[in-house]
Specification:
This protein has one domain. Helices cover about 50% and strands about 15% of the residues. It has 15 helices and 9 strands. The radius of gyration is 21 Å and the shape is globular. The C terminus is likely disordered.
Length: about 375
């Protein structure tokens, strides 16, 4: 449990529960303002939006070899070493399409999320336990809607841990408009951001609140995830064990314009011997959930994540790769592999092509990369 004095905990809770005003929309050029207009997206039928998103995505897949190569490398990194590896090429094509559709879905007005009866029962059992509840999610599909079912299951707010970038003034560009809309979209669902302050999160869970934490973020805990070794943050398991909060593994997926939430049975920290065991149990569940829809996982090779250290064999963060290179240099061995020459040009052209594709359908890869990079336990 926390060593924070009760008076300080009360102050932490009061500050965290205070509803913050959303930032104003930044002023941008008329074309960008139109492109990022929630009103316009609400007026245009989703079927037309889906068509407009699918056609450019297919054009880039078939017309730009570097886009195909980059998407294939991403899918190899995700499904390598798993039974889904044989589907990597088909999944790479699906990923290019789905990425564009998810960007367009983001701008849709809040729609009631779908949830099947088993998932509803799993969530209800956790919510009725009288304990704090952690919704543990990966950056999969429309993950910005991950806690939406709670809005219709109980009359109370829920919280999602966000990086410092979320609380900064929106910049006068696509990313800034996206951030301003994110604030409005989440508050319309009684969903509020929470700073990455460990004692605040711990106090909220100890007080019985509902908190969203993302699992697939770089950390220090050795983990087997998606059939390969990597180091992930283990904050979810640590917080559950220190507060007694239940952990509900959840997944978001897209069905048309509607977000759908799948919820597994809650994990009780009392059933585990420690952080390592509970963390790996969560990794196993999330691996299963991701591998059913691997093309919808956020790109682990994106800037700020594992980058080119994410391969079919393992995921190594940039800092791990740097340490490995330095160790090899000290030992007089070969340095860790780096991307250079024609390979670097191929990767660079692929990223440039994907950025152009994103602009074509009204998005910016950097915005989603920042969201995924800074959402962490």
């Amino acid at each position: 449990m926390s060593n924070t004095p009760p008076s300080d905990q009360s102050e932490l809770l009061a500050a965290a529960r205070q509803i913050k005003a959303p930032p104003p929309y930044p002023r941008v050029s008329p074309p960008l303002a139109l492109l990022t207009s929630p009103t316009l997206h609400r007026l245009v039928p989703w079927r037309l939006i889906e068509l407009l998103g699918r056609l450019p995505a297919l054009a880039f897949w078939y017309g730009v070899p570097s886009v195909r190569a980059n998407s294939r490398a991403t899918m190899d990194a995700i499904v390598g070493g798993t039974p889904r590896a044989q589907d990597a090429h088909r999944l790479a094509r699906a990923r290019v399409i789905e990425a564009h559709l998810l960007r367009l879905q983001y701008w849709q007005q809040p729609a009631r999320a779908g949830i099947d009866e088993t998932s509803r029962q799993n969530l209800a059992a956790a919510l009725q336990s009288g304990r704090g509840v952690i919704l543990s999610s990966c950056h999969l599909g429309p993950y910005f809607d991950v806690g939406f079912p709670l809005t219709h299951m109980e009359d109370r707010p829920y919280y999602a841990v966000a990086g410092d970038w979320f609380f900064e003034a929106p910049s006068a560009d696509y990313q800034g408009r996206r951030l301003a809309f994110w604030w409005r979209k989440t508050q319309a669902r009684n969903h509020h951001p929470l700073t990455r302050h460990a004692e605040t999160i711990q106090a909220m869970l100890a007080a019985g609140e509902r908190v969203v934490l993302y699992f697939d973020v770089i950390g220090r805990r050795e983990t087997v995830f998606l059939g390969k070794p990597m180091r992930l943050a283990d904050g979810t398991a640590r917080l559950a064990l220190s507060t007694g909060a239940l952990v509900v593994p959840v997944r978001t997926r897209r069905v048309g314009a509607q977000p759908v939430i799948d919820a597994r049975e809650a994990l009780d920290p009392a059933r585990f011997s420690g952080v390592a065991e509970m963390h790996q149990a969560l990794a196993d569940i999330h691996s299963e959930l991701v591998l059913e829809l691997p093309e919808t996982l956020e790109d682990p090779r994106r800037p700020g994540a594992w980058e080119h250290g994410a391969t079919a064999e393992s995921w190594m963060s940039p800092s791990e790769r740097q340490k490995a290179a330095e160790a090899a240099a000290r030992a007089g061995g070969d340095p860790a592999p780096t991307v250079s020459g024609p390979a670097a040009e191929t990767v660079g052209s692929a990223q440039a092509a994907e950025a152009a594709a994103a602009e074509t359908v009204g998005s910016a890869e950097a915005a989603e990369a920042a969201a995924a990079r800074d959402s962490a336990a």
